[in-house]
Every structure is written in C-alpha cells, then in structure tokens.
Amino acid sequence: MRKLAALLLLLLVLWAGAACADWRGDVQSAKLVGEGDFTVFGFRLYRAQLWSERTPVDYDERFALHIVYTRGIKRERLAETGIGEIKRLADAPIPAETLARWRADMLQAFVDVAPGDQLSAVNLPDKGVRFYAGDRMTGEFDDPAFARAFFGIWLDPSTRAPTLRKHLLGLGE
Questions:
Q1: What kind of fold does domain 2-168 have according to CATH?
Q2: Residue 36 dihedral angles phi and psi, to the nearest 5°
Q3: Largest separation between any pair of C-alpha atoms in the chain
Q4: Where are the chain's structural domains?
Q5: Does residue 146 carry a pLDDT above 80?
Q6: What keywords are annotated for this sequence in UniProt (predicted)?
C-alpha cells in the first residue's frame, strides 16, 4: 500500500510540474537579449522580448520570443498577418499547401488576445517551434522551416519593424 501511495504521490508531483511549466522552462538559462515595442500609426500593439542563452541569437540554439499585448487582437488576424509577413519575406514562393498547413498550425497555437495577454514562441533547433499562451503550451510543430519563417517576422533583416528588430537583438538604437 505504501508503494502505491508513493507512486501516486510521484505521479501527482510530475503532473503538477508539467502543468505549471511554461516557456521559461524551455530556455531556463536564457537571459534577456533585448526588448521593444511594436507600434502602428502611433498605437502600441505589443511589447516583445527576445530571450537566449547566447548572443548573437542563432537558429542553432534555443531562444524565445515573448510578447505582451496592449491591444485586443483575434487569433485569425494574428495568423493571417503572420502568413502575410512570411510570404513577403520568403526568398521564393512558398507552396500553397505549406502555407495552409502553417496557417492551421498558427490557428491551433494562437488565442484571441486582450491587453495584458502573453504569447510566446520557443525555437527548437533542428526540430521546430513550441508556442505558449500565458503559461499553457498551445502547440509544438516539428518543422524547422516553419520555425525559421515564423521568427523571421521579427528577426529577418527585411522585417517591417527594423527598430524593434534592433532592440530585440540588443543592437541599440
């Protein structure tokens, strides 16, 4: 009976630990590389932070993009905007089937956000990306091309937000 009780206690502890895990657990020794605001026509939409164990940030290492929203945005809008930016930044046309899969992945991982809500994404080198809404994991996708394209929205030199990119990468003003 004691063994059963001990086993149940162990399972409870393991389950509770997993339930409390969040994006920070994926990048435990990471430090804040940089942060900045994303604004459109003078309206602040969110504050973004980039966390990494190493600088400069490299796709061969784990890093996390953490966003705290200051405006409400529907998940469909987040996904459509993301796909639009991925298409714009691509070196070559991306097949429609791939874009449809990535859109579906985003719709699974994203939630409608209100002011104060947080979404995070963790780069998993040679594997893909893991998404969180607040402290809850909402999706993990084993697709390194999707991960690179997604993070490129902020980190690609041709991003629509070059000042935010500089801040995220810790490159100053």
A1: Chalcone isomerase (3.50.70)
A2: -170, 170
A3: 66
A4: 2-168
A5: yes
A6: Signal
